[in-house]
């Protein structure tokens, strides 16, 4: 017994051709905004959480020495690097 093959066409009103997404011209493509690299001298934020008591102690220590918390952190880090090669 021979089987007949039935071909089903596209639904009515549909184009059988594959539709491609439009390609944007090169001048319309915007570069990613997250690729910015700061210069070594540019200031950026360094964020981390500490307890309120620790922050108060560090701030008091820096204030007593007429330093900012940033200056104190930089000096502490420099000292740590020099003593822990």
UniProtKB/TrEMBL annotation:
Record InterPro entries: Arc_rbn_hlx_hlx
Source organism, top-level taxon: Bacteria
Disordered: annotated span: 1-22
Name of the featured protein: Chromosome partitioning protein ParB
């Amino acid at each position: 017994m021979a089987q007949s093959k039935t071909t089903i066409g596209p639904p009515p009103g549909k184009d059988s051709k594959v539709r491609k997404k439009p390609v944007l011209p090169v001048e319309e493509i915007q570069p990613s905004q997250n690729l910015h690299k700061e210069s070594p001298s540019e200031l950026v934020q360094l964020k981390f959480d500490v307890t309120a008591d620790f922050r108060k102690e560090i701030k008091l220590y820096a204030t007593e020495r007429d330093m900012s918390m940033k200056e104190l952190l930089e000096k502490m880090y420099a000292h740590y690097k020099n003593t822990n090669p």
